[in-house]
Amino acid sequence: MRKAGIILFAASLVFFQAYLAGRLSVLGVIPDLAAVFVVFWALRAPKADAFRFAFLVGIGLDLLGPAPLGFMAASMGLVCLAAASMGKWMNGDSWAVRTMIIFASCLAVRTASLWELSACGAEWGFREWMIEAVLASACTSAFGIPVCHAALHIPFFRAIRPAGGLTSDV
Fold this sequence. Notes:
Layout: H1 3-20, H2 33-44, H3 47-64, H4 71-89, H5 95-119, H6 126-151, H7 155-158
Helix pairs in contact: 1-3, 2-3, 2-4, 2-5, 2-6, 3-4, 4-5, 5-6
């Protein structure tokens, strides 16, 4: 896989998440496609490559968003490391496990984003957390599985397979 293709995909993913993902909203909840692909990459690529991709996506989201520089990069990097570890510990080959990992990672990113907003002076409570973090994570995990399944059939994403590969994707 070429580095230019990965950088171009990360840039287009950041652009989509920052400007176009709002069109996919369900009941005002926007799915986090960036977190879906970070988890997808973490479950399929070697850990170092997945971490670089997550950091690149996170820095792009930091540059286009209101968060302080490095906040989303750190969040995406931690999500990537956690997803890679959980994927190896659990059966990362299972679609149910992938759904749970996407849900948990998106919940972590959304909760961290709300925490970052509270550091900037915004107030939020349990109701806002349920709507913004939990409902958004459920929407993202439901949206993420068909996206991941479709990505498995695109040659660009099939090239990120590690040496061992996932048995059901062969």
